[in-house]
DNA sequence: GTACGTTTAAAACAGATGTTTGAGGCGTGG
DNA sequence: CCACGCCTCAAACATCTGTTTTAAACGTAC
């Protein structure tokens, strides 16, 4: 197979930006994820992109708008890929070709994330890290510009997972999805809590290895019996 | 009970700092977690603390040193509390009073985090969020000043969990600990991926509620059967 | 009272930041 | 040839940054 089934002709979707604008986006993406929004100066970006300083204010309106553009460029195709995975799964279920299963729903998230991590043309693992930055440092603009698409995606996953977990209340399903997504998300982003120490074997960033250890963990967690008793035991 | 069993007389451990220094630390802590290190100016800190600008460079050496102090003030007692929990558990096991159990190990992490989240005197949930920020935006200095203590803590948890999971390879144990800590950490920090959308019931920040849903998830995930097959299924 | 170390006050420092300006270059269509 | 939009360039803009400096107030011990 020469063309990945996950990609829908990347070269044709991205002529929105001129060459200099793309150079700026690429440089900014790497620097934003490495240093953060505030710590990355426009002069550093333009210097690394090999363009003039004023170019960023010409092509994008401001530094904040640039950040939003950097994020949106990667997010849109990824989100649509997630939706596509859910469509395929639900079509298979409707035709009786597949069972509604927790693991199947999880894989609808894992596969796009895995493909993203392996494809440098779409930002690779860098974008996932950028996404995680946006999450903890919550930038207003990005959150607002995302909330609609993201909300749609979440409700789709919630519905699918709810069908795979009959007998669980909506609140339980929300929590399972929240916790499951949280692990997967930060695992792909490489936010290893243990790696601060360094000797962890986890620091290996091989996406396939991540999936191998991640999926059983998440599936088992989502399938867990609800906790009845309170916290202070 | 008037004094929490988790706290060891907070009032006596913290006279290291003068009153103005403490005011600076408190203001800086809130602003750092809200805006980030780079986006928080010293003028904003001193203004909110009601002290003079030069005071921060007098009491602490520099802005970076201030950040380190802000972090260290909360981290040290929390880490020692985690170690204490492990000590207690292992002592119980040695005396045959408790089984070595995954949930018991998990609770050694959850209890201090829960106590921290509920105690505003020790930074409350703010510190956990600050911790999560330090994690994704990895500040060199903080990481270096932490790596020793943090490494010690991690190896203690690893050993305890490894004993609770006989038959699993060291690599597997590392992964389980990594994934389990990751969920717990970000759950307490309130880094809800779903909350970007807003309608999630998860956005309720009640620590006890977090624990109720979190612990079964994590325990089941850690106990999961290792995943044999590769990613691309 | 005087000298001393400690803490605070206001001002100034040099440098970096995001943004804007105005002039010029390049290519296309008249 | 000219003219027009698109784009790039170097320079300057005002503002904010962390840090330092200078002076003054405070409490304490001689």
Judged by helices, strands and strand pairing, the structural class of chain A is mainly alpha
Largest interface: A-B, 72 and 72 residues
Rg calculated over all Cα atoms of chain A:
19 Å
What is the general shape of chain A? elongated
Helical percentage of chain A: 55-70%
Order of helices and strands of chain A: HHHHHHHHHH
The oligomeric state is homodimer
What gap, in angstroms, lies between the N and C termini of chain A?
55 Å
Work out the helix count of chain A. 10
Low-confidence stretches of chain A: 1-14
Average pLDDT over all residues of chain A = 83
Largest sheet of chain A: none
Report the count of strand segments of chain A.
0
The percentage of residues in β strands of chain A lies in under 5%
Feature tags:
233 residues; DNA-binding; mainly alpha; elongated; 69% helix; homodimer; 10 helices
Molecular structure report:
2 copies of one chain form a homodimer. Chain A is mainly alpha-helical. Chain A has 10 helices and no strands. Chain A has helices spanning 10-13, 19-35, 42-49, 53-59, 63-94, 102-118, 124-136, 140-164, 170-189, 207-223. In chain A, helix 2 (19-35) packs across helix 5 (63-94), helix 2 (19-35) packs across helix 7 (124-136) and helix 6 (102-118) crosses helix 7. The longest helix of chain A has 32 residues, at 63-94. The radius of gyration of chain A is 19 Å and the shape is elongated. Mean pLDDT of chain A is 83; it is low at 1-14. Chains A and B meet through helix 6, helix 7, helix 8, helix 9 and helix 10 of A and helix 6, helix 7, helix 8, helix 9 and helix 10 of B. The first copy, chain A, binds a DNA duplex (30 and 30 nucleotides) through residues 18, 20, 41-43, 51-59, 62-63.
